[in-house]
Amino acid sequence: MGKPTVHDIAREAGVSLATVDRVLNDRAGVREKTVARVRDAVSRLGYVRDLSAANLARQRRYRFVFLLPDTTSQFLHALHDAVLEATAALQLDRCDIEVMHVSVGDPVALMAAFDRIEAAGIDGVAVMASETPVLRDRIGRLKTQDVAVVALITDQPNSERDHFVGIDNVAAGRTAAVLTGRFAGGREGKIGIVVNSMMARDMVERRIGFDRVMGEGFPNLTVLPTMEGRDDHAMTERVVGQFLDSNSDVIGIYCAGAGMRGLTKALEDRGLGDKLIVVAHDLTQHSRAALESGVIDVVINQNAGHIARSAARVLKAQCDGVDVIASQEKIRIEIVLRENLP
Amino acid sequence: MGKPTVHDIAREAGVSLATVDRVLNDRAGVREKTVARVRDAVSRLGYVRDLSAANLARQRRYRFVFLLPDTTSQFLHALHDAVLEATAALQLDRCDIEVMHVSVGDPVALMAAFDRIEAAGIDGVAVMASETPVLRDRIGRLKTQDVAVVALITDQPNSERDHFVGIDNVAAGRTAAVLTGRFAGGREGKIGIVVNSMMARDMVERRIGFDRVMGEGFPNLTVLPTMEGRDDHAMTERVVGQFLDSNSDVIGIYCAGAGMRGLTKALEDRGLGDKLIVVAHDLTQHSRAALESGVIDVVINQNAGHIARSAARVLKAQCDGVDVIASQEKIRIEIVLRENLP
DNA sequence: CTGAAAGCGCTTACAG
DNA sequence: CTGAAAGCGCTTACAG
């Protein structure tokens, strides 16, 4: 006999299929004694349920929403594309995925988005947004309705989210620092840092990691105060330009946020295209080109494809009440050089 | 109406379910005109078949074999564990996976293994072995029997394998070189290279990539002739020891093969634990510890878990005649430092 | 509290 | 060359 099925359990326990099903799915209204008989048969026969048959019978589909910021950046673009790509593949796994672009910083817009999600009876939500009280509350509300929730890119550690899909940003900052420091090879000089805003947790964490390694390991390098580029090319170009013009012995720049095009423009306009050690975040069309031309030396990447797929897998596993393969869902801090560009 | 099903096709085409099934599965014995009618209905209704329902009806299971060398190394160990881990998860996807450890360098043993595989009616094989004529032939034979075949770690470019699951070793060598070169920061000195054997294609490719970048970008560094460690700790320790004792201004070592424990021992015995730039391959218990203690500076890694899962996914997709997500199956050249250790 | 029967979307003998 | 009926392993009204 092959793998045992519900029929085998029914026979072994001396009950009907319907009762086996009730017990298997923890539905109420079965006598304790009967429950015990069925559970007994299950463990005696080593029964393990065929989820795809169950889903077929139940005509189950999983409905997930990816709630992303409505701002634009090349990374967000890449993430959006990755979600669409995952969507196509997951259709076959009975998952329907919708992407919602929302002004996540605006509490009213955020509330409206969550209202829509609740009304639509969604099974799982992956949300990328800064931590706010509104967001924390709405995640909590979703959890009372048994909706699976994962935080994307930016963790929501004080919320009830089931899982975080993203990198450890302190470690990312440390990684950026050690590469900058080692590439400097003992030379003395100044290092600049650009972030979006020091209000964003990710940026603060990256800066902390960066400073810590610099302090411990590279006394020859001086890290200057943080510049804020506000995710904007023009702004980034301006602050970096001013920084370069007013400091003589700059040997490196760590770009922890977006606005990378402003950074490379500022460097190129000053003929510094391949003079400085430049470490930036996230592999995009632009950063790929900058790596190839040598303007950027290192890209610290969080793989958008992996993040999209991981989020979907985790949401589905949460709905099914099964475990994920932990190592598969761990988002790596990828170090990308011109030589190992994928 | 939801997604169309076989019933809808049957009605629309004015035929029975059995006939729809015949056409859908390209079975012979249907009049051309009938085939056309069904295909027409399919495209008109935008029918897409439910693979899991089909697999249920057909009681389909996929039987895959991972054919691995019977030699031992920490990487092989990690790969083996990764396959077992993937196996557990894939049970739910109707995949049965068996790992065969075979003396892949011995033609007789290899032939016997393939005989067993053919006799057992396996659906797909992932094979890790050096290129040999015997292997090429047997892969060809499997393909005539419609068995899916992927090459693991070492490509079999002249065979009829369906896919290669592994990294570009020339690029890996280039990556090792650029990190060694940049960490050297302009200093002059000698660089040693240890491989298993220059008979192995991977090793040759890594050496080629390494030399090329060194030649182009780092004239201050002199790369010395290759040492061969034969995948053996004692041997590796001996050749590296001799190398260190007979060369004065060594500033780095690239360990492209296994036997890493011999390497770190040779270094530590001479008090060079954190003096040299050391780049090695593959993340294992030992290399992780060596990264943490600083004896090794960089590990170039091919993710064993990713490789195992990718191989299984590709085999299954091949059996089902569906596409994979290319970016997901691309094995990355991971750069691992102490700071971004997973 | 429990069971008989029909159904999810597909495939498979078997009969004609 | 084609179709009616039963079945894959599970779930769902409905009836009792």
Automatic annotation (TrEMBL), chains A, B:
Record's keyword annotation contains Iron-sulfur: no
Alphabetical list of InterPro entries matching this protein: HTH_LacI (IPR000843), Lambda_DNA-bd_dom_sf (IPR010982), Peripla_BP_I (IPR028082), SBP_2_dom (IPR025997)
CDD domains assigned: HTH_LacI (cd01392), PBP1_sugar_binding (cd06307)
Record domain HTH lacI-type: where: 4-58
Protein origin, superkingdom: Bacteria
Family matches, as Gene3D superfamilies: 3.40.50.2300, lambda repressor-like DNA-binding domains
Pfam families linked to this entry: LacI (PF00356), Peripla_BP_4 (PF13407)
Signal sequence interval, chain numbering: none
SUPFAM superfamilies in the cross-refs: lambda repressor-like DNA-binding domains, Periplasmic binding protein-like I
Keywords assigned: DNA-binding, Transcription, Transcription regulation
Name recorded for this polypeptide: LacI family transcriptional regulator
Organism listed in the record: Arenibacterium halophilum
